[in-house]
Design the sequence.
């Protein structure tokens, strides 16, 4: 059985050989103080064609990450961290919806997303939608992404820089905090467990 470390290496090699060109990942994190306390509304589709809105996740905590399957390094690392954190949380993970939202719906088909997220964890929910819906959700979560086309003669050979933090939402749909890229699974799981105990105990 492949380990997540092995899959990270395989994902990076795939991206370098047949996927989009590697980009210099821009710092597209929200500026301090710009995460307003509001419910983030969205409407997307899961990999089975079911419409999913923010209301479908009410009552559960959620981890939300924006990325794309052709991402050579940041996305695989972040999804592996999310997956490991879920495993470390044990039964507490049942109260969390782990969500991966593609910012590349043109290339990320439902099947590709299903296979991709399944490599990391069977519980990760992949969402996709038309560009307008994707942009709406990205904006709602105060995230960003930028498409880079190095060679105009090859417009399909593009890469995407994007917000790399993982958003953590409460059962009310409000943003609790963000976990910066590079946060360890252990630190994330410990922090999430403490927050869940505090919120549920209120």
Sequence:
């Amino acid at each position: 059985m492949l380990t997540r470390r092995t899959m990270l290496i395989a994902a990076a090699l795939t991206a370098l050989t047949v996927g989009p060109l590697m980009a210099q990942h821009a710092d597209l994190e929200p500026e301090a103080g710009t995460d307003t306390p509001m419910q983030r509304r969205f409407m997307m589709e899961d990999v089975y064609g079911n419409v999913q809105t923010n209301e479908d996740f009410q009552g559960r905590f959620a981890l939300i990450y924006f990325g794309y399957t052709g991402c050579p390094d940041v996305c695989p690392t972040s999804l592996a961290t999310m997956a490991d954190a879920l495993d470390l949380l044990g039964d507490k993970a049942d109260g969390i919806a782990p969500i991966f939202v593609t910012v590349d719906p043109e290339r990320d088909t439902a099947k590709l997303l299903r296979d991709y997220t399944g490599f990391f964890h069977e519980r990760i929910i992949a969402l996709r939608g038309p560009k307008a819906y994707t942009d709406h959700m990205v904006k709602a979560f105060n995230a960003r992404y930028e498409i880079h086309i190095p060679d105009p003669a090859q417009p399909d050979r593009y890469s995407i820089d994007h917000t790399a933090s993982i958003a953590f939402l409460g059962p009310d749909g409000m943003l609790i905090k963000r976990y910066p890229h590079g946060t360890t699974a252990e630190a994330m799981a410990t922090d999430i467990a403490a927050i869940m105990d505090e919120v549920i105990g209120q």
